[in-house]
Amino acid sequence: MNGLSSGRELVIHAGTHKTATSYIQSRLAANQASLAKAGVLVRYPGRPARKHKPLAAALAKERWGVWRRYLSALPETSSPVLISAEQFTQPLVKPRALDGLLELLQQQGFRLHVICFLRDQPDYINARYVHSSRRLYHCQDFDTYVQVQLAERQHIYDYQQLFGPLLLHAAVRCTFLPYGTSFGDPFERLVETLGMSTPAQGWAAADPGKGNVQPGCRGVWLARAVGLRLQALGVPGRALANTGAVVRRIAEAQGWQDDRYCGFDRAAAQAVSAHYSIANDAFAERVWGCRWRDRVPEVAMQRRVYEPPASGPEQEALERLVDRALVDLAADNRRLARLLRNTPVTMDSASPG
Asked: Distance (Å, rounded) from C-alpha 167 to C-alpha 276?
């Protein structure tokens, strides 16, 4: 823990990505009144959306007027204020944005407490692959994706490097919580970190429609097939609107979610763990006073992917699902709709099999 100044506390739950943040945010919204009774305020910068993303965006762009209006609108009380968005992680580790926020908070009489959940790197990379594939951000196979992450994006997973600037600030209190099913419910762990116990009536459940459900092995295959078809059309998936729900809707309708995707086998996962072991131990010693594996157990990884048949009824059914996904995307994207009308693209050019 870092040193603290006196004053009211602003608590930022900053993710990281793929650590049940949407679930936590849904439960924060559902329990806003109960949390207030327990002494923690959850307030949003706008209505009717119950989101703190506008504050994260303003921090990234150093738009301090948004923050001043938000802080000024808070009720006069000594209760800590809790906000949550995974988009906070990146601006909080940038010295200029962090310095600006700390200066503003000091002016408003607040000290800063940042809470982050952290996944073991192989588990984290696998989760990010599934998420980014489903949203059509790329159409890479898993092994290529891992190579790119370790070569070009490795700082995302090197917690010693990523959070170094944040840990240097004596004015910031930092709490890092290992993430995983073995640790228990992440919402309850978050509120317990703030000293709150479960109320007699219990905490309200999350909105079942707010979670990010994995699309399963077939869903990951479908996402890549759609991505390759878009690539053949010359349309980047990132340029399209409303990509996130298309594969998910099909996967849910097909009942694919329980067959959870895992691109790593045990040896490949251990290689990634070894890649980060020195940095992990240095980080863990710094924030927990122990080795990484003393707090974060190794996640058992067993490769589970879907390999479609080369022909036959199952392969034909998959082709129809790829077509359906493209039609659903075209409903919200006029350029894609025109291309689908004018450019014949066969499944052979889109299949990741």
From this structure: 19
